[in-house]
Amino acid sequence: MRFYLATSFIFPRSLRLRLFALCFVATHLPLIAYIGWGFASGRIALAECVALTLATVVGTGIALFGIGALLTPIHALAQTLNSEEKEAAPLPEVGDVIQALYAGVHRAASATRSRIDDLDVAAHEDPLTGIANRRGFMSRVDMLPEAQRSGCIALLDIDFFKQVNDHLGHDEGDRVLAAFADRLSRQTRRVDLVARWGGEEFILFFDGATEDEACWALARIADQMRSDPVGRVNDRVISFSAGVSRWHRDNIDEAITAADAALYEAKAAGRDRICRAARLLATTRP
């Protein structure tokens, strides 16, 4: 690198020409030394000088041709990479070979970064509904600051969802899941977390909410599901059951387990209702 920088004044915009110049000078050093010795000693032989000059010129030509052939693919690669990255940051003026290497590393790093981002999205997002999956939900909960690690956890399950798949087909089942996820996302606050927990189960974290507030929010969504249903099966609007549990900075797994138990109680009590984990008191639909 030091030699590269030290010779940068020789054709600073082209490493190819810089190599040619250094090669030309290096291959002529023996001839220059011989001529200098001959003139100094008075013993120069004209025939030998001419022969050595011709041999040096031929050798220089071969060397220059070889270097040019070796650098041509790299130069072409640099031009290709530059043309493909017109919108990216311009490459520094460091010569053909270094520019090609820089462009290659830059492109590889960009592709790797993009791939990592895609994998991260795939690992944390449900592809059908576009909301977070179980892993994404837990990851976002883990990143919550201490002041926000309090609220209510709600587990929701679409009632009789198996009948949707059995009677209307899996395509309709997928549409219902996506529509329900969209309904949850639009009817909750930006600070709340919405995720697909698995199958037809969804999970909500109501940031800073009390059980009453979480139940009111869920009841509002349930009312909208009845007045503007996401679908019908067997002449019945598609509804959901929910279990709600309080969470306050302790192990969230315990709150999820409690919400799951409350959800089981809600479904056992007839579905289309919300049940609180603390008292297991069902709030039936009007």
Question: What does this 3D model show about the protein?
Answer:
The chain is of the alpha+beta class and 286 residues long. The protein has two domains: 2-114, no CATH class; 134-284, Alpha-Beta Plaits, CATH 3.30.70.270. It contains nine helices and eight strands. The chain has helices at residues 2-6, 15-41, 46-84, 96-124, 134-142, 161-168, 170-186, 211-227, 252-268, and strands at 150-158, 193-198, 201-207, 232-233, 236-237, 240-248, 273-276, 282-284. The protein has a six-stranded mixed beta sheet with strand order 2-3-1-6-7-8, sandwiched between helices. Strands 4-5 form a two-stranded antiparallel ribbon. Strand 7 (273-276) and strand 8 form a beta hairpin. Residues 280-286 have low confidence and may be disordered.
Concise account of the structure shown:
This protein is α+β, with helices and mostly antiparallel strands and 286 residues long.
Count of strand segments: 8
Query: How much is the average pLDDT?
Result: 80
Inertia-based shape: rod-shaped
Q: What CATH first level of the largest domain would be assigned?
A: Alpha Beta
SSE map:
Layout: H1 2-6, H2 15-41, H3 46-84, H4 96-124, H5 134-142, E1 150-158, H6 161-168, H7 170-186, E2 193-198, E3 201-207, H8 211-227, E4 232-233, E5 236-237, E6 240-248, H9 252-268, E7 273-276, E8 282-284
Parallel strand pairs: 6-7
Antiparallel strand pairs: 1-3, 1-6, 2-3, 4-5, 7-8
Helix pairs in contact: 2-3, 3-4, 6-7
